[in-house]
Design a protein that fits this description.
There is one protein chain. By secondary structure, the chain is an alpha+beta fold. Helices cover 43% and strands 18% of the residues. It has one domain. The model has no long low-confidence stretch (mean pLDDT 83).
């Protein structure tokens, strides 16, 4: 039983460390973190087209487990819908922003972090 208590304490300390790291990340670090998460789902060379829910939903869960609040948002983008995260501070965290680059929207990076733009209802 002592081992169980030790393990529980260790898990709690690891969780607190991850929360500290996520809360103290600079924007470029958050983008790198999300790029790695995205690549883990898509693979290195796969298009993000139509993967917005499949990436944004588990990303929201991962962030919430570690104390980073966000809201899963869905918006109509012409013939399609788009799903992304809205952070507590109002910024958008979009792990598939590049999927609309082909249809004339502003050229966006694979992972976008910033003020909402047209594909986010701005």
């Amino acid at each position: 039983m002592a081992c169980s208590g030790l393990l529980t304490g260790l898990i709690r300390n690891i969780r607190l460390l991850v929360i500290y790291i996520l809360c103290n990340m600079k924007d470029k670090d958050i983008i790198k973190f999300v790029e790695a998460f995205r690549n883990g789902i898509l693979g290195d060379n796969k298009s993000s087209w139509a993967w917005c829910f499949a990436i944004s939903s588990p990303l929201q869960l991962l962030l919430s487990i570690h104390g980073v609040e966000s809201e899963l948002k869905e918006i109509d983008v012409g013939e399609y819908n788009h799903i992304f995260l809205r952070l507590k501070d109002g910024r958008v965290l979009d792990p598939t922003a590049d999927q609309f680059n082909w249809c004339g929207y502003k050229k966006l990076p694979p992972v976008y972090l910033g003020k909402p733009v047209k594909i986010h209802g701005a």
